[in-house]
Design goal:
It is a single chain. This protein is α+β, with helices and mostly antiparallel strands. 38% of the residues lie in helices and 23% in strands. It has two domains: 142 residues, Aminopeptidase, CATH 3.40.630.30; 191 residues, Gcn5-related N-acetyltransferase (GNAT) (Aminopeptidase, 3-Layer(aba) Sandwich). The radius of gyration is 21 Å and the shape is elongated.
Length: 344
C-alpha cells in the first residue's frame, strides 16, 4: 500500500502500509498486498500460531464501507485468499468507530466478534492541528502539573534512530516487562521496525540533567549526600512510528526511577510538539482499557494517557470470519483462556 492510499483514507495509519507488510516479512510472516479500484486496498498477513494459521488484516481493510457491492467483492477476495493459504480464520479490525451501524456492516460480510483484541482498538487520539496552548489547556490538571514539574526538575528529552539506541531500548524494555509482567517485542521485531521505517521510527528518551533527590522531587544543589538520582540517568523511553498524517506512541520502557520522576509526561509532551511542527495531524497514544473495566491490565496506563486530553476512541472490535469451524473452536478456547489470564 502506498502512502497515497493511506492519505486517501484519512482513518488509515501505518498498519495498512507497505512498510508494515515488509516488517511482517522480515519476522517470518507472509504479506499479501491487494489494491482495488478507486484507491481501495488491503494488506493481509498470514500468521502461523499454535492456536491455528490465520489471515490478519490490521487496521483495515481501507475501503468505502458505504459501497456494499464493492465491500462484498473485496471480502469475497479476502475469503478466497484465506482458503488458498489454508487459514483457519480471517481476523481484521477496521478503522471504523464502534456502534450499531458499523457492527451491522461486520455481520453483512459474515464476521463475528473475535475473542481477542487486535492493535489498540481502544485508544486516545490528540488533535495536533490545535495550538500548543490549547493542547496544554485540554490536559487533566494533574497531567499539566507533571509536565510543568518535569521542566522544574530540568529533565531533558532527547531522540534518535541509531542501532545502538534501539538495542538500548530493547534491553530496558525487557527489564520493564519483568517488572510489569508483559511480553515485549523481541530484538528481531525492533530491528525490523528500525530497518523498514527508518527515520519514521524514532526512539525518544528522557534523562536527568541535574542530580535529583532519591524520591525524584527536587534538584540537588551542590555536592549530594547519601542516595540520590545522578545527573545523566535515563528515566523513560518511547518508540514512536509516524506515517501519513498520524504518529503512534507504539512502545514504551522505563528504568527503576520511572515511577518517581515525571519523565513520561515530559516525553509525550515533547513528542506531541515535535510531530505537530512536522505537520502531522493526529497523535495516537496507542492502547487503553475498554470503558468501565477498572480491573483491565491497561487501567493504570489509561489514567496516564487520558490525562493528555484528546478524544477517547473505540474502534469496532476485532472481527473473525471463520473458514474452518472445527479448528476455529480450538482457537477460541485458547484465546478466551488467555484473555482471562492476562486481565484483558
Amino acid at each position: 500500500m502506498t502512502k497515497y492510499n493511506i492519505l486517501k483514507h484519512p482513518e488509515g495509519n501505518f498498519l495498512q502500509s507497505d512498510e508494515w507488510g515488509r516488517v511482517a516479512e522480515k519476522v517470518g510472516h507472509k504479506a499479501i498486498r491487494r489494491e482495488y479500484k478507486n484507491g481501495e486496498s488491503v494488506l493481509m498477513i498470514v500468521k502461523n500460531a499454535r492456536r491455528g494459521r490465520y489471515l490478519e488484516i490490521p487496521g483495515g481493510p481501507l475501503i468505502d464501507w458505504e459501497n456494499s457491492e464493492a465491500v462484498k467483492e473485496i471480502f469475497d477476495d479476502i475469503k478466497k485468499t484465506a482458503k488458498a493459504e489454508k487459514c483457519v480464520f480471517v481476523r481484521f479490525r477496521p478503522q471504523l468507530m464502534n456502534g450499531a451501524k458499523n457492527l451491522a456492516k461486520m455481520s453483512a460480510v459474515g464476521a463475528k466478534p473475535a475473542p481477542f483484541h487486535l492493535h489498540a482498538q481502544n485508544t486516545v487520539i490528540l488533535d495536533l492541528t490545535k495550538p500548543e496552548d490549547e493542547l496544554l489547556a485540554n490536559m487533566r490538571r494533574q497531567t499539566r502539573y507533571e509536565v510543568r514539574r518535569s521542566a522544574k526538575l530540568e529533565l531533558v528529552v532527547k531522540k534518535g534512530t541509531s542501532d545502538e539506541l534501539f538495542k538500548e531500548f530493547h534491553s530496558v524494555q525487557v527489564d520493564t516487562a519483568k517488572r510489569q509482567n508483559f511480553i515485549p517485542p523481541n530484538m528481531d521485531e525492533l530491528e525490523a521496525y528500525h530497518e523498514v521505517f527508518k527515520n519514521n521510527a524514532t526512539i525518544y528518551y528522557v534523562e536527568t540533567s541535574k542530580n535529583l533527590t532519591i524520591d525524584g522531587k527536587k534538584v540537588i544543589e551542590g555536592e549530594p549526600e547519601g542516595e540520590y538520582i545522578p545527573a545523566g540517568t535515563k528515566i523513560n523511553y518511547g518508540l514512536f512510528i509516524d506515517y501519513g498524517e498520524e504518529v503512534e506512541y507504539f512502545e514504551a520502557a522505563s528504568t527503576e526511577y520511572g515511577h518517581l520522576v515525571p519523565g513520561a509526561y515530559a516525553m509525550l509532551w515533547q513528542a506531541a510538539r515535535d510531530y505537530k511542527k512536522k505537520g502531522l495531524k493526529r497523535f495516537n497514544l496507542w492502547g487503553i482499557a475498554p470503558p468501565n473495566q477498572p480491573n483491565h491490565r491497561y487501567a493504570k496506563v489509561t489514567t496516564f494517557k487520558t490525562g493528555f486530553g484528546g478524544e477517547q476512541v473505540e474502534f469496532v472490535h476485532a472481527q473473525d470470519i471463520v473458514i474452518s469451524k472445527s479448528k476455529y473452536l480450538i482457537t477460541k478456547i485458547i484465546e478466551v483462556s488467555r484473555k482471562i489470564k492476562r486481565h484483558l
